[in-house]
Specification:
Number of strands: 0
Radius of gyration: 19 Å
Order of helices and strands: HHHHHHHHHHHH
Number of helices: 12
Oligomer: single chain
Distance between the termini: 49 Å
Largest sheet: none
Strand content: under 5%
Length: 234
């Protein structure tokens, strides 16, 4: 193992570690409260590793949701990763075998941001650095989830409100995007579609229709947004 490489990667992933430990704690506590122990936490973190979908998965597992519901919900919640992967084809080109499979599996919103924005040191191979970033972030998430599961079993406290941690994260991301991006039409389309489906389908069944409607709305808005951006840049 190249310790110099991992030491540099650790420095770059410190902000991710802070967020993943806290969010992982929340997930582990919720999973324990729902009746699933530490082994479930480990299995979900290692093999699923889907952040927000893991939070959703707790309620799906506890309610005994049909597999088709779980599959469709997972597809809609995690569909954005398809586009992440497409944009990283060139960066991951030449990575061999199991290492490439792991890079695909460990791709999250945060690791995508690191891989596309972090300056790669001159003294390391960039493919090895991508692997180090992805592995460290995954380990942070696993650690947080295990600690949360253990805390949920030992500490006598109410877990009410813990599930809001992931919601708070996405609210923060939404606010940051609203502040930094001038054109708010995609964000408004998402909010409008979600509220409409919430009113029509109710809080238990609105997620998949809302995601489909948002996707359709963005496809319709795509060309006007591209023309507007081209006009601004030209």
């Amino acid at each position: 193992m190249n310790f110099k490489l991992y030491r540099r990667a650790f420095v770059h992933t410190l902000p991710i570690m802070a967020g993943y430990i806290v969010l992982g704690l929340g997930f582990g506590i919720l999973l324990r409260v729902a009746g699933f122990g530490a082994l479930w936490a480990v299995a979900m973190c290692v093999f699923l590793y889907a952040g927000s979908m893991q939070y959703v998965g707790v309620s799906l597992m506890a309610s005994g949701a049909p597999l088709i519901t779980v599959a469709l919900t997972t597809l809609m919640v995690q569909a954005r990763h398809l586009f992440y992967g497409i944009s990283l084809i060139d960066r991951y080109r030449g990575v061999g075998g199991l290492k490439k499979l792991y890079l695909m599996h460990s791709l999250t919103d945060e690791t995508y941001s690191l891989i596309t924005c972090t300056h790669i040191p001159d003294f390391v191979d960039e493919k090895s650095y991508y692997f180090a970033l992805s592995l460290l972030c995954h380990l942070y998430w696993i650690t947080g989830c295990i600690l949360g599961s253990l805390a949920g079993a030992i500490l006598p406290f109410s877990s009410e409100g813990v599930d809001f941690a992931m919601t708070a994260l996405f609210v923060t991301v939404f606010v940051e995007q609203w502040v930094t991006v001038k054109d708010h039409s995609p964000a408004l389309a998402g909010v409008g579609c979600t509220l409409l489906c919430l009113l029509i389908f109710g809080s238990e069944s609105f997620l998949i229709p809302a995601m489909l409607l948002i996707l359709l709305s963005l496809l319709i808005l795509r060309r006007p947004l591209e023309r507007k951006e081209a006009k601004q840049n030209g």
